[in-house]
Specification:
Blueprint: H1 3-6, E1 11-15, E2 29-33, H2 38-50, E3 55-58, E4 64-65, E5 71-77, E6 86-89, E7 92-96, H3 101-110, E8 113-114, H4 126-131, E9 135-136, E10 139-140, E11 145-151, E12 157-161, E13 167-168, E14 171-172, E15 178-185, E16 187-188, H5 191-207, E17 215-218, H6 228-234, E18 241-242, E19 245-247, E20 254-257, H7 263-281, E21 290-291
Parallel strand pairs: 2-5, 3-5, 4-21
Antiparallel strand pairs: 1-2, 6-7, 7-15, 8-16, 9-10, 11-12, 11-15, 13-14, 17-20, 18-19, 19-20
This protein binds flavin-adenine dinucleotide.
């Protein structure tokens, strides 16, 4: 019996992933599963483990390239309320892993809690953003993380404290299949002060990104003390192209997908840029973009 037969109410077979990724390219999922409760999610994971069905978690698809071929196994989206909730206890906020980062930031600001507002404009879910440790020089999300509650391979709900986790440039060692929720430790501050910082961060971030109507993704992590964009420019790869994929003219560390771009175009561009940067600057860039 397939996953679609066992969980018919929450599973779609051969489901396009294009609507759920920022680049709007790539093949369909063999099974797209949207569980309604944690128990249901657990049952799906146990079945996948028993039947050796590969499992992938899909957040907002902002740091993700789906290859052109079908994605085998189960792709799970956490969109139901048990995965998107927001609660507050004093200066601590707990957010479901499937909720939007923007909703979390807005909730914190409304409650006069500072610490997350400089991340404004970064799109993604809470789970995807913590796994990818989003941020920039103004701060990273990991600085406010207190605990992360995960679902393990063995189907156990476990809470890991900040001390047990390692975060670095746009990555973490969170490798359990699912981030269920994250507790943040924030600072009580006047809402007007937090809002002021948020507005400044918004303007700075938007100036360094592709234009808002363009579908673009970040490609590489910044090496220590340098930026990937500067290295790409130094290697004279500014505005490099491959098929419909092109480096953004506003920031060379983003690939923009023009209509008709394939995943293969993006991957070829990534390979070309990485090889030329290594050859011309001696620096090996580390890929930030997750590829399925
Ligand atoms: C225009 C643009 C600008 C950006 N600017 C920045 C920036 O300034 N700083 C920055 O750090 N990033 C930036 N990013 C990258 C991106 O926004 C973040 O990495 C984003 O938070 C990823 O979250 P997501 O939910 O979209 O994850 P996805 O892209 O869907 O997934 C990323 C990874 O996380 C995993 N994942 C997702 N949800 C879960 C979960 N609940 N449990 C376990 N694993 C999960 C996925 O399996 C995948 O491996 C930018 C991206 C774009 C497109």
């Amino acid at each position: 019996m397939s996953l679609a037969d066992q969980f018919p109410d929450i599973t779609k077979r051969n489901a396009p992933l294009v609507p759920y990724t920022h680049l709007k390219i790539g093949g369909p999922a063999e099974f797209l599963v949207q569980p309604r409760t944690v128990d249901e999610l657990n049952a799906v994971l146990s079945t996948c483990q028993r039947d050796r069905v590969p499992v992938r978690m899909l957040g907002g698809g902002f740091n993700l390239l789906v290859r052109d071929d079908p994605v085998g196994g189960a792709v799970i989206r956490l969109v139901a309320e048990p995965f998107t909730f927001l609660t507050r206890d004093g200066a601590r906020v707990t957010a479901g892993g499937g909720g939007q980062l923007f909703d979390l930031i807005a909730f914190a600001v409304r409650n006069g809690l500072g610490g997350l507002e400089t991340l404004v404009g970064i799109r993604g879910t809470v789970g995807g953003s913590v796994r990818c440790n989003v941020g920039d020089r103004a701060g990273e999300i990991s600085q406010t993380v207190r605990t992360v509650t995960v679902l393990t391979d063995a189907g156990k709900v476990q809470t890991r404290t900040r001390d047990e986790l390692t975060f670095s440039e746009h990555q973490s060692d969170l490798d359990e299949p699912v981030i269920l929720s994250v507790e943040f430790e924030l600072a009580s501050e006047p809402t007007s002060t937090v809002l002021k910082r948020m507005r400044k961060a918004w303007v700075q971030r938007k100036a360094g990104e592709p234009l808002s109507f363009q579908a673009g993704v970040r490609l590489f992590r910044n090496p220590p003390g340098q930026t990937a964009a500067t290295l790409i420019d130094r290697a004279q790869m500014t505005k490099a192209k491959f098929g419909g994929a092109e480096l953004s003219e506003r920031n060379s560390n983003y690939a923009v997908a023009h209509p008709g771009t394939t995943a293969r175009d993006i991957l070829s561009l990534v390979d070309d840029v990485r090889a030329k940067v290594k050859e011309r600057t001696g620096v090996a860039l580390d890929q930030e973009l997750h590829v399925w």
